[in-house]
Structure formats: C-alpha cells, structure tokens
C-alpha cells in the first residue's frame, strides 16, 4: 500500500515547529550580522580599487588621461573609472 497523507494535527504541529525553527535561525543570523558590523566587517563585493588607487586615478583623469587608459592600467572596466569620476564630481558639488 501507498503512504497515507499525514493527519491534520500532525501537519499543524510540524508547521509550528518549522515556524519556530525559522524564527530562531533568523534571530541567530541577525545577531551574527550585528556583531560582524560592530567588528567592522564589510558586506558585499570586494572593492576593485583601494583608496590610493582611486585618488591616483582621479588625479590622472584631471591631468587629461583618457578613461580607457586609466581603466586599463588598473585592470578594471571603463565604467568603474567613470563611476569613480562621477562620484567625485558629486562629492565636490556637495561641499562648499
């Protein structure tokens, strides 16, 4: 014979247990993330350029070098350098 569907009470108990476990797991994840942020852990993808390289790239762009040449030097896409340049312009406009 085949397996019979679980009793309604049994299914309800299982759902309660699953919901409780999910809540406990979410709480642990939340606490772990909070501790990591407090410890200075950066979430998300790694930066393509460090702070020194960003400054150097911006100064090279201001000196007249092309976007593609600067990007090629650092081994990144031109869009990365373009975004860096745009962010620098926005920051410059934002400060008096």
Task: Give a written overview of the molecule.
This protein is mostly helical and 96 residues long. The protein has 2 domains: 1-44; 51-94. Helices cover 71% and strands 0% of the residues. It contains 4 helices and no strands. It is elongated and about 75 Å long. The model has no long low-confidence stretch (mean pLDDT 90).
Number of structural units classed as domains: 2
Please estimate the helix content.
over 70%
Query: What is the N-to-C succession of helices and strands?
Result: HHHH
Q: What number is the mean pLDDT?
A: 90
Number of DSSP-assigned strands: 0
The largest β sheet comes out as: none
Large-scale geometry: elongated
Beta-strand fraction estimate:
under 5%
Query: What's the gyration radius in Å?
Result: 26 Å
Structural class: mainly alpha
Output the number of helix runs.
4
Low-confidence stretches: none
Distance between the termini: 81 Å
Short description:
The chain has 96 residues and is an all-alpha fold. It has helices at residues 8-38, 51-62, 67-74, 78-94.
List strands and helices in order, with pairings:
Blueprint: H1 8-38, H2 51-62, H3 67-74, H4 78-94
Helix pairs in contact: 2-3, 2-4, 3-4
Descriptive labels:
96 residues; mainly alpha; 2 domains; 4 helices; 71% helix
């Amino acid at each position: 014979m085949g397996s019979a569907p679980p009793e309604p009470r049994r299914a309800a108990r299982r759902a309660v247990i699953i919901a409780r476990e999910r809540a406990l797991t979410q709480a642990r994840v939340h606490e772990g993330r909070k501790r990591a942020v407090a410890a200075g852990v950066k979430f998300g993808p790694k930066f393509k350029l460090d702070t020194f390289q960003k400054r150097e790239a911006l100064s090279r762009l201001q000196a007249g070098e092309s976007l593609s040449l600067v990007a090629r030097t650092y081994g990144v896409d031109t869009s990365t350098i373009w975004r860096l340049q745009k962010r620098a312009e926005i920051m410059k406009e934002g400060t008096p």
